[in-house]
Write a structure and sequence with these properties.
This protein is an alpha+beta fold and 196 residues long. It folds into 2 domains: 3-43 and 116-184; 47-113, no CATH class. The chain is built from 4 helices and 6 strands; from the N terminus they run H-H-E-E-E-E-E-E-H-H. It has helices at residues 3-14, 26-43, 129-148, 158-184; strands spanning 46-53, 60-62, 69-76, 89-92, 95-98, 106-113. The strands form 2 sheets. A 3-stranded antiparallel beta sheet has the order 1-6-3, with no helix packed on it. Helix 1 (3-14) packs across helix 2 and helix 2 (26-43) packs across helix 3. It is elongated.
C-alpha cells in the first residue's frame, strides 16, 4: 500500500471523504501516518543484512552506509563458520567496535531499519497495514478533539467528547497491537561456546 492509498484508508475510517470540505489536510494525515510508521518501525524494524569489509588490524567497522539504521542485531566475523561465529560488539555513532581485529574480509551485519511508506511503495508487511491506519486515525481524532474545544460545530459540545473518546479507544488498541508485535519480533540472542 503506497502513501496515497494509505491516506485514503485513513480518511475513510475518519469519515473525511468529502474532497470539497476535508476536515484534515493531506499534510496533517501524512504527518500522523509518518509518526505511526516510525513508532511501528521501532517495534518491528525492517530486517536487513549487509556484508561490510573489515580493516586489517582494526576492530572497527564503518556502518555509515547503513541508512535509516535503528539497531544492530549481530556481527558475524569471520563468515562461513558452522556454528556461526558472532562477535561481541558495541556501536558508537556510525562505528561498530568488535572484539576481534579484522583482516580485510567481510563481516556480516544484521540490522533493523526504519520502514518507508511513500508515494510509490511501502516496506510495511500487508498484514500490519491496518495497524498504521488505526494509529493514524487515533492521533488525528484526539488532535481534532483539542481543535474543536471552544468552537461552534454542528454536533455541539459532544463533538469534542466524541472525537476524544473514539481517538483514545483507537490509540489504546493501536498500542496493544504494537506491544503484541514487539513480543512476536523479539530476537533472542544466544552465544555458543566450544569446550576446550
Amino acid at each position: 500500500m503506497d502513501l496515497p492509498t494509505m491516506r485514503a484508508r485513513v480518511r475513510q475510517d475518519l469519515q473525511d471523504t468529502d474532497a470539497a470540505n476535508y476536515r484534515w489536510t493531506d499534510d496533517e494525515i501524512d504527518g500522523a501516518i509518518e509518526r505511526v510508521v516510525r513508532e511501528f518501525s521501532f517495534r518491528y524494524p525492517l530486517q536487513q543484512q549487509d556484508d561490510i569489509a573489515t580493516t586489517d588490524d582494526s576492530n572497527e567497522i564503518d556502518i555509515s552506509s547503513l541508512l535509516k539504521l535503528l539497531k544492530v542485531y549481530s556481527v558475524e566475523f569471520p563468515i562461513g563458520y558452522r556454528p556461526a561465529h558472532y562477535q561481541r560488539f558495541s556501536v558508537w555513532q556510525s562505528i561498530i567496535h568488535m572484539e576481534e581485529s579484522g583482516n580485510g574480509d567481510d563481516a556480516r551485519i544484521r540490522w533493523g531499519k526504519l520502514h518507508t511508506l511513500d508515494a510509490e511503495s511501502s516496506t510495511i508487511p500487508e498484514q500490519f497495514e491496518e495497524i498504521i491506519v488505526l494509529g493514524a486515525t487515533g492521533y488525528l481524532a484526539t488532535s481534532a478533539s483539542v481543535y474543536t474545544v471552544d468552537r461552534a460545530t454542528i454536533a455541539g459540545r459532544h463533538a469534542t467528547i466524541n472525537f476524544l473518546k473514539w481517538g483514545r479507544e483507537r490509540l489504546a488498541q493501536y498500542h496493544k497491537e504494537l506491544r503484541s508485535i514487539a513480543l512476536d519480533n523479539r530476537i533472542v540472542s544466544k552465544e555458543l561456546y566450544l569446550d576446550k
